[in-house]
Specification:
The structure holds two protein chains of two kinds. By secondary structure, chain A is of the alpha/beta class. Chain A has eight helices and six strands, in the order βαβββαβαβααααα. In chain B, strands 4-3-5-6-8-7-14 form a seven-stranded mixed beta sheet, sandwiched between helices. A five-stranded mixed beta sheet of chain B has the order 11-13-12-15-16, sandwiched between helices. In chain B, strands 1-10 form a two-stranded parallel ribbon. The chains are: A alpha/beta, B alpha/beta.
Chain lengths: 237, 408
């Protein structure tokens, strides 16, 4: 890792799997041998309501807990977090540290107001757009895999966790030890499972989506020097 | 005892509750066992603690952020680690019922959060005087207006004078370790009191961290309800400690004497619990960088933020000390006086508006310390205190800038 710590603030909409994404990313880092912690932040669990989740990643022990007020990475899971203000943090880049990265799930650049543009430039924010929903639709045939696409993209930006560890984390989430996220998420899981009929297929689709955005970030030249996409392995389920 | 409703709940005739297969072992022995470290949420850490606590009866009413933990407790009941479990009608019902379970001599568990705690306060206030060992997990959440589901630990201040034992856990690890200690201490004969294990909701319950736990094949010894300051009620022992006698209800010298003796007993028992917590928690306080001129005194999640502030100051060559207060009741008065006596500056970061820890610290150090005790920093209503806030306060105090002196 080139920096001592990544402090990630994820913002999205209820139902998009923002909290799940934070669990998968964080768990992936721990599997890969790093240190990580996470905390979600949401109101009543309902679709389309604002959701934030925070992930800390470090080489060393992490003491801090709670929400991240001053992130160096912001991940926006849906454009309406910005355009409709569907967010707990307004404007969405509030607290971003100097030279920080904003990764936005959008096919096209978002038109910011003059003030927003100026303030982001003042802190030298780097804005990366990744069409995660489109990639999820294309690869997994469902936009429910958008969160997987976001995980793949950010893992390439950080160079951690490696793709194998991230895959292990996805496996943990859907068949392994199981990650407790929330009651609402459990209901959504069964809906996804019905759609895919088999968990193995679900895993495979998720992994393909992760890999697709990982490669996308490498192709754009935004990836960390440690980010490499290994050959696809058959998943042992 | 096993799950009496097992067949009705669809278990096969030869079903054996998982708890029956566990080996009983004292907490002293359990603390010496090798541990496995797992990355888990605070709710899961509490579940693993309850799994090893030999709980007879759990009763709770759901409220965010407590619900997830008690949902996990439901799985433990299904597996046979908890002998009986139900969702009560609401909190007064839950806390009255669990008091009945405790009076009957079984190991009793309940849990709540902020507004739920407030709703059940009448029942809770009756527990200590009735000498009912109960462990209540309290996942702190905003109670004052505007209401929110986010963490804020002002509710702990409401428990301080009830006569309950109150622990304040910092992280997921504490949420595994503290309940085990709470069960054992609350059931000691010379204690026989309920114990709250509070943590800051979401930041601990819904967040993941590394938790070191012992093998699930072990559990604590069962409660012996007759080895108790007030024996369990049964067919031979009528319920003790009921305020049923007419003289107690009247405003006269008898009511005063009765009340004073009960309260004296309760608060003496709180003090007597200290030696057990000292043994099981490795001290009532933890001190980082002892003897530093600048000390931070904190409990709960604020400790984690303070640790990071201490680390960052250390990188800059500044030695800042930290006192983590694990037990709020019993209050570690002498330990805090000893650990803070060298300090010139003391900060008390808190996640609540009232500053209850600050008040406790000021009362304790009055006449025992030359330090300036700053009234903060504080966040409330559900916000996390950024480490940067503690660092800013330290910088402003050193440079004598800002208006922090106004709040001394």
């Amino acid at each position: 890792m080139s920096v001592q710590r990544y402090n990630v603030r994820m913002a999205g909409l209820g139902g998009q799997g923002v909290v799940t994404a934070s669990h998968i990313l964080s768990n992936g880092v721990v599997i890969s041998g790093g240190h990580s912690s996470l905390v979600p932040f949401f109101g009543s669990e309902k679709r389309n309501a604002p959701v934030e989740s925070y992930v800390r990643i470090s080489k060393d022990v992490i003491y801090e807990i709670g929400e991240i007020i001053f992130p160096n990475i912001i991940m926006i899971f849906h454009p309406s977090v910005i355009t409709l203000g569907k967010s707990y943090t307004m404007p969405f880049y509030t607290g971003l540290k100097e030279g920080g990265i904003i990764l936005i799930n959008s096919k096209t650049p978002i038109k910011f107001s003059a003030d927003e543009q100026r303030e982001m430039e003042a802190i030298n924010a780097k804005v990366y757009y990744v069409p995660c929903t489109e990639i999820a639709n294309e690869v997994a045939k469902t936009e429910l895999a958008t969160n997987m696409a976001m995980c793949g993209a950010i893992a390439a930006v950080f160079g951690i966790p490696d793709v194998k560890s991230l895959g292990e984390s996805v496996k943990d989430r859907f068949i392994g030890k199981g990650i407790v996220t929330s009651g609402g998420t459990a209901a959504l899981d069964s809906a996804i499972e019905k759609k895919f009929a088999k968990k193995a297929k679900l895993l495979e689709a998720n992994m393909k989506t992760l890999r697709a955005t990982y490669q996308y970030v490498i192709d754009q030249g935004w990836a960390h020097k440690d980010a490499v996409l290994p050959e696809e392995e058959a998943l042992a389920v | 005892m096993s799950n009496l409703n097992a067949q009705e709940e669809g278990k096969s005739a030869d079903w054996v509750p998982a708890g029956d297969m566990q080996e009983e072992i004292s907490l002293e022995e359990m603390l010496k066992l090798p541990r496995e470290t797992i990355f888990m949420t605070g709710s899961e850490a509490a579940r693993e603690s309850i799994r090893r606590a030999n709980v007879d009866m759990a009763i709770a009413y759901p409220i965010t952020p407590q619900s997830e933990t008690m949902q996990q407790a439901g799985y433990l009941y299904d597996e046979g680690y908890i002998k009986d479990y139900y969702r009560a009608e609401e909190e007064i019902g839950a806390f009255s019922a669990i008091s009945g379970a405790s009076r009957a001599g079984v190991r009793s568990l309940t849990a709540t959060s902020g507004p739920g705690l407030m709703r059940g306060m009448e029942a809770i206030s009756s527990w200590p005087g009735a000498r009912t060992p109960i462990v209540m997990l309290d996942m702190c959440r905003v109670i004052n207006t505007p209401l929110a589901i986010q963490p804020d630990n002002i509710e702990i201040s409401f428990l301080l004078d009830t006569g309950m034992l109150v622990l304040h856990g910092e992280n997921q690890q504490d949420f595994y370790d503290f309940p085990l200690a709470a069960f054992m201490v609350s059931e000691e004969v010379d204690v026989t009191l309920p114990c709250t294990v509070a943590v800051d909701g979401f930041f601990v319950t819904h967040a993941r961290g590394n938790v070191s736990i012992v093998d699930r094949k072990y559990k604590l010894p069962a409660r012996d309800g007759w080895k108790s300051a007030v024996p369990a009620m049964d067919n031979e022992n009528p319920p003790a400690r009921l305020s049923r006698d007419a003289p107690i209800q009247k405003s006269n010298f008898i009511s005063y004497h009765m009340h004073s003796s009960w309260q004296q007993e309760v608060f003496s028992a709180v003090e007597r619990s200290a030696k057990y917590f000292d043994k099981y928690l490795g001290g009532l306080i933890e001190v980082v960088n002892p003897g530093a001129d600048e000390m931070i005194i904190a409990s709960g999640a604020a400790v984690s933020q303070a640790r990071e502030a201490v680390r960052q100051e250390g990188e800059k060559g500044n030695k800042v000390g930290l006192i983590k207060v694990k037990t709020i009741r019993p209050w570690p008065r002498q330990q805090i006086i000893d650990a803070a006596k060298h300090a010139k500056t003391i900060l008390v970061p808190e996640f609540n508006h009232a500053g209850w820890l600050h008040k406790e610290v000021c009362t304790t150090l009055y006449g025992h310390s030359e330090a300036t005790i700053y009234n903060g920093p504080r966040v409330f209503g559900g916000m996390t205190m950024p480490t940067e806030m503690i660092l800013d306060w330290l910088a402003e105090i050193r440079n004598k800038t800002g208006s922090k002196n106004l709040f001394v």
